[in-house]
Amino acid sequence: MSFFDTVRIAFRALLKNKMRAVLTIIGVVIGIAAVTTIVSIGQGASKLVSGEFEALGTNVILVFPGQTRRGGARQSGAPTLTTSDAESIGTECPAVLAASPIVGTAGQVIFGNENWNPKQMQGVGQDLSLIHI
Asked: What is the pTM of this model?
């Protein structure tokens, strides 16, 4: 059987089973679109995570205090890091250019006739301007 005969038989089968051929084509198109979409989403997420790490820089380390556990549940108990810990890291580690503590709380701010109640306030050390966060 020659190549021409094989192609002729294939076209005859496609014309005889038009619905099957159309459904097969739709299935192939949907499959290719699904794979392309999943790969694109994966690459986009990878670029997003890489961008976040690059935004921090390769020379910045953020240290957060630990959490306590009681009965299997995590609780934010007493802070395990203090401002003196940040000062000690800055003075005793020669590879550290600057260290700044960050303290967060909620409260009320009153200045003059203004009364403001933010959900979160943060205080930082004087060396934060040297750190590029």
From this structure: 0.41
